[in-house]
Structure formats: C-alpha cells, structure tokens
Amino acid sequence: MDHRHAHRRKTVSTVPTVTSRGHHGTVVHDAEERGDPIVAARGAVLRSRRGCLGRGYQRTSRAVGNIGLKVKGQATLRDATTGATLVYDANDLVMYEPSGFFIATALATTLQARGRCPGMDEDETCEDASACVVGTFSPSGRMTGQCVATALKDEDGKVVKRCEVEGWCPGEPEKDEVTVLENVGNFTVFTRISVEFPGIPDEDGEGNMLWTNLNGTKPTLGWNLWTINDLLESGGMSVKEVARKGWDGRVDVEFDCNLDRGIDACAPKTPYTLKQVMHPNTLSEGFNIRWISGQNVGEPSAQAGVVYSNETANGPGKDVRLLVKGYGPRIRFEVTGVGRKFDWLTLSTTVGAGVAFLGIASLVVNAVMMYCSGPKSKQYESWLFAEFHDTPYGSTEEAT
User: Fold this and answer.
1) H or E stretch including 379?
2) Most buried in the list 20, 24, 34, 240, measured by CB within 10 Å?
3) The CATH fold of domain 60-120+170-340
4) Among candidates 124, 114, 128, 143, which has minimal Cα distance to 306?
5) 244: phi > 0 → left, psi -120 to 50 → alpha, else beta; which?
6) Distance of alpha carbon 146 from alpha carbon 161, whole angstroms
7) How far apart are CA 55 and CA 269, in angstroms?
C-alpha cells in the first residue's frame, strides 16, 4: 500500500537498516512525524512545563537585608492629677530592637520607694497572718509574715486584707489608670535598608549585588521616611484603636528584582503593608512594655499601710523610682523576596531538565499505549514501529 502522501512530515531523518525480510529501508521510531494525537498531547505537556519554568535562564537569590531605624517626634500628656501638660520626645517613648521598635501611645505610672506595703495581687489576699509565710516570695515582693488591711473593699463593703511584703511600694494597681499621649501618630520613622543578593555578583565581579534605599537621597516620605499613622493605616489600624492596649505587627519589605536590568531598577514593593503578628485570641492581648524613669521623680505620697525605708545602699534617704508601663504598637521590619539574574549554568540545567522530561514523557506514553490499551495495544505497537521502504517512486510503508 502506497503511503507517499498519506502523512505530512515535519522533518526527514532516515536511518539505514536491514529488515527481517532482507529489505533495505528506513525505520521511523518517532510517531510524532505521523501526526499522533497522543504525542501532540505530550508536546502540550512539555510546552506547559516550559511555561511553568518561566525564568529558567536566571539564577535566583534570596534577599538578605539589614534595616536600621530612627524614630523622631514630640508628644504631650496631660497629668490627670495636677492638670499640667508634659512634653515627651522619642527618647522617652521609643524602645528599639533589631529591625524594629516599640512606641508608647499611652502611659500608666506608679511612683515607688523601697519599703513595706500590702501586696497588690489577689493571690496575696489573707484573713490572718497564717497565710503569709515569712520570707516567701509573692508577685509583689517578699512576705514579712503580717496580714494587713488595705484601702480596698469587697462587694460586701468589707475591708480587704493582703499579706505585707518588702519591696517597691506601693505596688502596681490591679487595673491600670492609662493616659493617652497626643501627637504620637505624627512621629516619623526613618528606615535605612541595605539588601544583598548572595551568589549574584556585582558589575565588578568583586562581591554580591547590593541595594540600598539611601542612594544619596534625603529622607523622603513614602520612600525611606514614614509616619506612625502611615504604617498603622497600611495595616488597617489607627493610633486611636491601638493607643490603650497596644498592638504587635510586622512590615514585610518585599523584593522581586530582575537584576539583568541593573541594581538601579531594583526596589521593594511600596507602599509597605503592616501585618498583625499576634492572633487576636491569644492569651495576652495587645502589647505593653515596662521601664524605669529617673527624671525628677520626687517622692511617693504617704498611703495607708505603706512604710517607706529611710536607708539606702549609700546611707540615709529613700530609693525612689518611677515605674512606667507603656502601651502602644510594636513594629518590626523584615526583608523578604528574591533577586534574579541570567546564569549559564541555570540555563543549561533548565534545558537539560526539559530534554530529560521529554524522554520520560515519551517512555510513559508508549508504555501506557502498548500495555494498558487492551485490544489496541498490538495495533499501536505495529503503528509505532512501522517501516518505510525507499523505492524509485518514493517511500512505502510496511507493517512489521
């Protein structure tokens, strides 16, 4: 049967051979030349793989960054007792940590001195001295063995008694009396970001590619300068919402740089987005930090049940401190993302993987058709290994 015009060939590649019948001809082992739909599907899979590989000619490096921060601003707080307005700056309200900071938006203060006083924790409640073991440590200090009256009353109007302790007196109240600071939202945050892409050489070939947000520029809002309001709003929050309880969040500085275009074309995605770190259902809601202030703290006033010590390590006098509990947002910055650049080794690996995938796909398709297609298996085998014989009039096909 003459099949000279039955099939369209994309390429012509003949391999001389001798058949079992002694004829000289060519054997075609690739059914793709015959317009096989199975092979067409296999080709589609291969093309899909190429699409998934995407930038298979570029080496990928994870962005590794170093972030320096500087917070500036002025805020005011109105003292609830005296009515005086006090001015606070960043040195009063900001606590730094690696790649992050905490800024107080509200304060609760307790002026304390060393001495003896009733414990402030409910676990220190007592009816008599038997519940107060001398020398035992409690949440407020070390017990003296005395059960003393406090200024508190229970639901029945009865005076509450607590174990007396040695320590800083008076203790922190069970419920904080919080005062919100004004103008904290306008504090500015300057970010100094340096990012390295390990394994991707710079233009001189002397080190890794480096990126920085300085680039000789001045502090610029929206680029390397942000306000607290900006950062919180990017996470759907406001200073008013977090002021009294605090909040814990993270800013992802995300890179996706095509370094073939040069380091000047590389930049993080902006505006930044602040994400909440702590789940709202966690045991400790919000965020707060305690610290000691020693600025003109004065002396604590006399209180019922409180006896202040008049001896210090340096002689007569009082050891006094102002315990500050600050509520506010804790914000951390984290560099994420990748940089990509052309690499011959990556390209050759991608091409090799594609060729190997083609061979595996061919093997799997042929095995399925030859051994899992029932009555059609024999037909497929004959069709796959059909022989073409050269004649003066063209090529003819003969089934084996």
Assistant:
1) helix 376-384
2) 34
3) atp-gated p2x4 ion channel fold (2.60.490)
4) 114
5) alpha
6) 10
7) 20
Contact predicate 268/254, CB 8 Å: yes
Alpha-carbon gap, residue 183 to 398, rounded angstroms: 91
Query: Is the distance from CB of 246 to CB of 327 less than 8 angstroms?
Result: yes
Q: What angle do CA 373, 375, 377 make, to 5 degrees?
A: 50
Which amino acid is residue 38, in one-letter code? I
**Start-to-end CA span in the chain (Å):** 14
Rounded CA-CA distance 59/85 in Å is 59
Q: Which residues are part of a known binding site?
A: 70-72, 188, 288-290, 325
Strand partners, 225: 190, 221
pLDDT, tens digit, for every residue of 335-381? 999 888 776 666 666 666 666 666 676 666 766 666 666 676 666 66
Instruction: Say whether 64 sits in a helix, a strand or coil.
Output: strand
CA 346 from chain center: how many Å? Answer: 28
The conformational region for residue 219 under phi > 0 = left, psi -120 to 50 = alpha, else beta, is beta
- Count of H helices and E strands in the chain? 6, 25
- Which residues make up each annotated binding site for ATP? 70-72, 188, 288-290, 325
| All residues at 6 or more sequence positions from 376 whose CB lies less than 8 Å from its CB, including other chains | 369
What are the tens digits of pLDDT across the range 125-156? 999 999 999 999 999 999 999 999 988 888 88
Closest C-alpha among 98, 146, 168, 72 to residue 333 = 98
Buried b (16+ CB within 10 A) or exposed e, 52-63: eeeeebbbebeb
How far apart are the C-alpha atoms of 76 and 182, rounded to whole Å?
Answer: 5
> What is the pairing mode between strands 247-258 and 329-342?
parallel
CB proximity list for 173: less than 8 A, separation 6 or greater: 110, 120
* pLDDT tens digits, one per residue of 56-105: 666 778 999 999 999 999 999 987 767 789 999 999 999 999 999 999 99
- Rounded-to-integer distance, Cα 202 and Cα 369, Å: 52
